[in-house]
Amino acid sequence: MTTSTNARAAIATTAPSRARGARRRADRRSTATGWLMLAPAGVLIITFLLIPIGLTFVLAFTNARLISPEPAKFIGVANFTRLFDNETFWRSLINTVVFALVIVPFQSALALGLALLINVKMRGVNFFRTVFFLPVVTSMVVVSMLWMFMYQPNGLINALLAKVGVQGPDWLGDPRTALIALILMSAWQACGFHMVIWLSGLQTIPADLYEAASLDGAGPWQQFVHVTWPGLRQTAIFILITITIAAFSLFTQVNIMTQGGPLDSTSTVVFMAVRTGFQQQQTGYAAAISLVFFVIVLAVSLLQRYLTRDKDLKR
Amino acid sequence: MLKRTAKLVVTTLVAASLTLALGACSKGGTTSTNAATPGGTQTLTMWTHNAGNKNELGAVEQIVNDYNASQTKYKVDVQAFPQDSYNQSVVAAAAAKKLPCILDIDGPNVPNWAWAGYLAPLVGMDDTLSKFLPSVLGKWADKTYSFGYYDVALTMVSRKSVLEKYGIRIPTADKPWTNDEFTAALKTIRDSGDFDHPLDIATSFTGEWWPYAYSPFLQSFGGDLINRSDYKSAQGVLNGPEGLAWAKWFRSLVTEKYIPLKSGADPAKDFMNGKSAILYNGSWTAVDTRKKFGDDILFLPSVDLGKGPKIGGGSWQWGISANCSSPEGAMDYMKFSAQDKYVASVSKATTNIPATDAAAALVPGFELGGENDMFRQYAKKFAVLRPVNPGYPFMATEFTKTAQDILNGADPQQALDTAAKNIDANQESNNYFQ
Predict the structure, then answer these.
(1) In a domain, A111, yes or no
(2) Average pLDDT, stretch B338-346?
(3) What are the chain B neighbours of A70 within 8 Å (beta carbons)?
(4) CATH code at A118?
């Protein structure tokens, strides 16, 4: 849409004296161009986003299966009653929420710390930027496999802990530590990306503010609280939203490292949906799980929009 | 305002796509099935799970080459997939009605795919197939849909020198270890402190391994995944006293430190490196372990936990799809490939149990009294098929999760009750697959 408006504006300014008919023709042509340019993205979004979402809404109320000679039947809300009666679902939901609640502050603080560290003018800083960013460009599957070895009872992490005299747990095999292990590893993998975003935010803060602050006698901590942090508010909102959404869709790590175990301690809603839909072939039930997940994420997004809206208006 | 709404919509859509994209991705497109070439030769596509398994793939390709050279009417074209993604590929292709003409299938999935109408029954092969081990035939509703070249036997691998050192009796197929004997043996070895763990049951394997390897223990206790008289309910069979006894025994392996809760990535390697004294594994482990320990190696029968030793039966099998445009061609290939010499060549390449007696005579080691003959004995004596029912894939996932939970210390009765309830619900919601 923006393209066509811009084009129209351009035509209006460059050829103000043209006849009306010609302008209408040009209008039509630019509208057509606009639609044409929208088409590739539009087709993809409709095929892989809107149609699947629509299907989810329909399938969730049927007993559709992945493999079955029988046609799917409408079964009302039976999938949902079964779901809300399922302990694994509640466990998965709690795990997902805990994961999001812990990782959002943890990962963003870690990323901010890294960003502050490398936001200095000195030689070799680009080297550290690259190193911190490396995990982001590494496939999550590879990272998960590596950390799986590191988390083994006799793996690297426990070997390091043993050096300082701590007997490390069986990280992924113990229900008490499995989720924590996933959180640590996920934060390590993704924080490089958010570090770059923090960094871009940091560099928008004018240097004279720091100058003025130091003239006023503010120490580094006071500078951070009164100059840096307020200057990063927009960035913080963006990071909050992206990490939350990424956290809710936790799947790859779980699928590779723990398969939801031990004792459901790392099962997540998305993992449960995939397991139900593919391994257990219950398409309808999996659609119901996805629908519930959709509603939860929608609610969280709306809440975040609401919480950040007032501040938008004030500015 | 408009912008904000647009942003909201985009955020929402992105969030939703995160869930749904996962589903969308896995249902990728597949190649088409058959095509007639100008010379009148029809191409039959064949799928196998053997990519990455050079020996087996080579043996299968040899059959195909021989077949293609033997006649000009049909040409079989092999496409190999890695095993991990094979089942998903087939299910996705089936949903899109793009199955290849000929495909291999993990035995217990045959009833499910046959019931769903993906497979066509094998016709006119009854005489040939009557010579095959019953456990390598995939059947549903009185029709045979698939046959395999080989079966696999589960075995307790150990060393003569180790057992003799601790004064443990060497069991035979006729007189296997009893539960008490086995427990005493594990305790002796554990208390000696010579090994990290006396036993390794390869808990690090994933997927079908769990029901394949551990449900026979349940069956040896007298339980089962479902009541096989009518395949309607698992109540009282899976979660009855026998099931509970199995669950408690299974968990005790961990609490008594007889097995590692999670095995290493390659349990056979750990066994060969002396970390475990007894290894529970498939007969495929024979080649490497024999190479390492020579005459000292023992491939013992599984343990009798009450109702005699049980081992899983049924491995990979071949069938033809229902939407094949040239079923005669596919059947022609199936008949060609069922010759004893091919049964022998594939078994030899995989060091698995040949499915026919005639083939067994052709494979060194599997002849009567040969060094691999006991695997054939175990398969004949102890093999139990996994429930022959279209509901099996669901039972497999339920059993796997339940067994993992029990091993990790879940309340056995509660875990088994949940599994039985879920299996019953799935059977019922499919109208018992009638």
Answers:
(1) yes
(2) 90
(3) 430-431
(4) 1.10.3720.10
Structure token digits, residue B61: 């390709």
Q: Could B405 and A248 be called an inter-chain contact, meaning their C-beta atoms sit closer than 8 Å?
A: no
Segments in B318-384 forming alpha helices (H) = 327-337, 340-350, 357-362, 373-382
Amino acid letter, A116: L
Question: Is the ipTM above a cut-off of 0.90?
Answer: no
Q: Phi/psi of residue B355, each to 5°? A: -80, -15
- Is residue B114 less than 8 Å (CB to CB) from chain A? no
The 8 Å CB, 24+ separation contacts for A48-55 are: A48/B17, A48/B20, A48/B21, A48/B24, A49/B13, A49/B16, A49/B17, A49/B20, A52/B20, A52/B23, A52/B24, A53/A294, A53/B13, A53/B16, A53/B20, A55/A287
Taking the C-alpha atoms of residue A37 and residue A44, their distance in angstroms, rounded to an integer, is 13
Q: What is the pLDDT of residues B390-407, one digit of tens each?
A: 889 889 989 999 999 999
Asked if A264 has any chain B CB less than 8 Å from its own CB, the reply is yes
Going by pLDDT thresholds of 50, 70 and 90, the confidence category of residue B215 is very high
Q: Residue A39 domain-assigned? A: no
Q: Are B321 and B101 in contact (CB under 8 A)?
A: yes
CA of A175 vs chain B CAs: smallest distance (Å): 8
Six token digits for residue B6: 């647009």
Q: Which residues, 6 or more positions from A31, have their beta carbon under 8 angstroms from its beta carbon? A: A4
Closest Cα in chain A to B28: A48
Q: Is residue A83 part of a domain?
A: yes
User: Token pair of A97, please?
Assistant: 């929420």
Residue-level pLDDT at A49: 87
CB under 8 Å to A91, separation ≥6 — which residues? A264, A265, A267
Please report which confidence band the pLDDT of residue A19 belongs to, taking 50, 70 and 90 as the band edges. low
Question: What is the reported pTM?
Answer: 0.79
* CA neighbor of B214 nearest in space, from B414, B389, B398, B79: B398
Q: Quick check: A290 pLDDT over 80?
A: yes
Instruction: Indicate if the pLDDT at residue B305 is higher than 90.
Output: yes
The answer to whether residue A160 sits within a structural domain is yes
Cβ distance B21 to A48 less than 8 Å, yes or no, reads yes
Domain that holds residue A105: 2-11+78-314
pLDDT tier for residue B124 given thresholds of 50, 70 and 90: confident
Judge whether B210 is closer than 8 Å to chain A, CB to CB: no
Chain A residues 98-157 with a CB less than 8 Å from chain B: none
What SS3 class is residue B30?
A: coil
**For position A31, what pLDDT does the model report?**
86
Strand duo B197-200 + B154-159: pairing: unpaired
CB contact under 8 A, A294 and B19: yes
Q: In angstroms, rounded to a whole number, what is the distance separating the alpha carbons of residues B226 and B389?
A: 10
Q: Which of B11, B21, B404 sits opposite A262 (nearest CB)?
A: B404
**Confidence label for A17 from pLDDT (cuts 50, 70 and 90):** low
Longest dimension (CA), chain A: 86
With bands split at pLDDT 50, 70 and 90, how would you rate the model's confidence at A129?
A: confident
Structurally, how many domains does chain A consist of? Answer: 1
- Could you give the CA distance from residue A226 to residue A213 in angstroms, rounded to a whole number? 9
User: If we measure between CA atoms, which residue out of B37, B150, B10, B87 comes closest to residue A245?
Assistant: B10
- Helices B392-407 and B241-255 meet at what angle, rounded to 10? 50
Question: Token pair of B297, please?
Answer: 């190696």
